[in-house]
Amino acid sequence: MNERLMASLLRSEVKKLSEEKRSLYRFVSEIEDCLAQSADTADHFLSLLVEHAPYELASRHFGLPYTEVARLMDDIEIELTIKMEMRCKRLKLIDCTDYFQQKADKNREGHVFLFIS
Predict the structure, then answer these.
(1) pLDDT-based confidence at 55, cuts 50/70/90?
(2) Which of 50, 48, 55, 85 is nearest to 73 (CA)?
(3) pLDDT, averaged across the chain
(4) Dist CA 6 CA 116 (whole Å)
(5) CA-CA distances (angstroms) from residue 25 to 3, 77, 97?
(6) Residue 115: inside a domain, yes or no?
(7) Most buried pick, 43, 50, 53, 85, via CB within 10 A?
(8) Looking at the domain assignment, is residue 95 inside a domain?
(9) Residue 113 belongs to a domain
(10) Which of 62, 1, 5 is nearest to 28 (CA)?
(11) 104, 110 contact by CB (below 8 A)
(12) Angle at the Cα of 14 from the Cα atoms of 44 and 55, rounded to 5 degrees
């Protein structure tokens, strides 16, 4: 499936999490994303994860035991995976390329809107 569409669906599902889960997930994933962007290789990324320990940082930030952060993150990731799979099953992609090209030829100011629910 399209990477951008999947990222959009994930952001949508993250917004639906409880405040506690959403804050923890965003905190950890933002650190992991920054580390991934700064890493040159997969091995370098893994070493950065060990060095910066996002779960440990989250543990200190939220005042939770490390094991609780790890358990919550596992639960959140399972919940998001299930919700994403359900949305992907309901998702129906329709190729409207020909339709929009015909409209654009008739009206040079054609606009295309995509609605996802």
Answers:
(1) very high
(2) 55
(3) 88
(4) 11
(5) 20, 9, 37
(6) no
(7) 53
(8) yes
(9) no
(10) 62
(11) yes
(12) 40
- The residue among 34, 68, 63, 61 whose CA lies nearest residue 49 is 34
Q: Would you say residue 115 has pLDDT above 80?
A: no
117 is a domain residue: no
- What string of DSSP letters covers 29-97? HHHHHHHHHH-SSHHHHHHHHHHH-HHHHHHHHHT--HHHHHHHHHHHHHHHHHHHHHHHHH------H
Say what the pLDDT of residue 90 is. 85
Query: How many structural domains does the chain have?
Result: 1
The SS3 assignment for 8 reads: helix
Pair of tokens at residue 80:
């998001």
Encode pLDDT of 80-113 as tens digits: 999 999 988 887 777 777 776 665 556 555 566 6
Tell which residue, 89, 97, 92, has the closest CA to residue 115.
92
